[in-house]
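step 4 of 6: structure.
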Amino acid sequence: MFSLGFNEERDLQFADKTAGFESVMHICDRDWHGIRSATGCLPGHKATISHKQQLHGEEIRHLEGLIFHHDIKAICFQGYSDTANSLCEILHNIFGHDLRQYAVTHVTSVQFENKFEMRMLKLMQERKREGILRNLASVKPDFHFVCPEFTGPLITNIVPNLPYRPYSIRNQSIAFVPIENTWRKNLYTNVLACEASKKITQVLAVNEPSNLGDSRALRKTRVVGYQDKVNLFGFMASVGLVLNVTLAECQPMTQLEALAMGTPCLTGPLGLGAISKHPLSKMTEVGILDNPRFIMEAADRIIDAWEVDADNMIDMIADIVKLRRIIGLDSYRTLLEL
Amino acid sequence: MINDNDDGLQISNYKEYSLTFEAWQLMVRDKTQKNRENFNKFIEFKKIPCGSISKIFDEQFYKSQFPPNFIDVNPFFHYMQTGWKMDAKPHILFDNSYIRSLSKKEDQNVPPLLTYLRDENIFSPCVLFDAEIFIDNSEVNITKKKDAFDVFLDDWGGRAFSKWFNFKFYQMRVPEVGVGKVNPLIHYMLTPFHDRKDPNPMFQRLWYANHYMQDVDNEDPFIYYIREGISLGTPPNPFAEKDLRIRSKKLGMSMELLGRYIEATI
């Protein structure tokens, strides 16, 4: 079966519409949802492939046709895989230097215990040394410390461009925790922080912090289960706060989606330069990640801010969304030599 | 001019001798006469300007369709009397079935070349050449649509000539064609079917032939697709339905939609 997708609705519906990216095609994995969602927010064409299987001849031929038909001049691999690597070489054989190719990585060095990530890093380095990939960039700040070949600018993700915001009445004292129950995602500490807060009246969690209820009562926590995109946005728009304080992160999509819904989102420190220096980021980036008290204090500050001056909160969110967009699009213009 | 020597009649410049329907009828009727006498009668008829034949009749190509030394008369005369009935083509780019599809009912028993030259509304000998597109992209002022094909053969000049055949795409896959090199359309038609490269980014010939031409013999998939496939609503590649977000396969795809999907962007 074919795995190639092109300009599917889900990859275009929240895309920024800025002109100047018509000759760009982003290629990402169809099953890596975080990267795919982040890519979906960008302007330009979107192709999807699968790390599970190499492309068939007809798919490569179709991609060649699409690149020609849409006059694509720059390919940006969002995330990397063996399939992406093969495709990168094939496209170079077909188009030569008439088609510029780049890669953006969405990992942190924390994830290098996974051998796959190290192997992909090596492949990207090799392609850059061969001149097939013109430049490498990352959404993780200072990635050149990890790998010197990453000389591209810090890539800043942008907020989904929603044509509308779901209608909802915001209950500012409710918190939403859409975190998986894995070690890195730090679900328990986030839930415990909400339970300890006197200002949070209810906690809506997508996943259950299993067995936590055995050692203490979870009075406020309600597990709402997996939510599709529409419902996820609905939840985010109706609460005062989203929590995503994970142990290791690049630029969490959860935060971007929350901001698109006009809701602040707590995260760990992201180190994103001007964005992390923004007043809202100073409120939402938590310094100590494995102590519920610090997350709770940050959550309480947000709820206070809603109560004291909701308009100011709305303005701050709008301002950071705009800032991310400006910085994000500029980072791509620089990387892709537009 | 005409050289009448031991090698038989040689006409070096057909352009001077315009065809008339009557002349052709005379040649056909008078089968028992020697070819020389027929030709003399033919050239005595008044010239009626209905297009030159110097470029559209390629002697070398015409003879190549027959065994060596098969034609012992003037090739053009052979075509007009016998060759057209054997479906021989006067030029590599001349599509007999295409011309017949455009010709009037009463002209079905007329050599296709004659139909092409006589009919003021037929501007191209094949579906892959569009006179209007070529004229629009031409720096040379071509006043008559009928002359566009001759100019194209003389000097293609790297200009777009078709909304189907994307010469830039073809050139990417066949570096031997290009301005100052081989005319891409001639190269395409000279290449055996199975060795031809796709001349359109959205059309996959091998896939299409395997899926939609099992009962069709000896036809170029791309030409077949333009002449028949689009009207049947068949997709040009395995991804067209997804690209066009077609949900119901029963309806097929509309000609307009398909046409726009594969039209050359030049």
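step 5 of 6: annotate
 - Chain B touches chain A through 17 residues (CB under 8 Å).
 - The mean pLDDT of chain B is 79.
step 6 of 6: archive
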